Amino acid sequence: MASSLPAATEAKPSRNIVVLISGSGTNLQALIDAAPSFNARITHVISSKSSAHGLHRATKAGIPTHVHSMLKYKTPNQRITLEQRQKFDMDLGDFIEKLNPDLIVLAGWMLILGKEFVHRFEGKIINLHPSLPGDI
Description:
Elements: E1 15-21, H1 26-34, E2 40-47, H2 53-60, E3 65-67, H3 82-99, E4 103-106, H4 115-120, E5 125-127
Parallel strand pairs: 1-2, 1-4, 2-3, 4-5
Keywords: Transferase
Organism: Spiromyces aspiralis
Protein name: Phosphoribosylglycinamide formyltransferase
């Protein structure tokens, strides 16, 4: 009689992680190093800055990268408007949604994410930075 229980040697499905960064990527590197031990795969790294050293860390590890800069959303020499900020968050959310992550890790992401973004991915976000996502 065949057992309906999975074999003990069957691998659990890997968890897909998208990591958001803004700087050097030291937390990202720790995640890259640890991911295999908790059956995870970093599928994409997104940075708010094209100059972030973390992008080099991701590239070195063979992880695709994307820069989502607020600069393209605002008028030069002016503060970003609420509408521009909401568009930034919406576009970021749309990009991430296409990646279909199991988890989104804010690993030194230095921009505040709006409530709509946070609610859109409720239960999928871990923030490693000391401020709260959406905290204004």
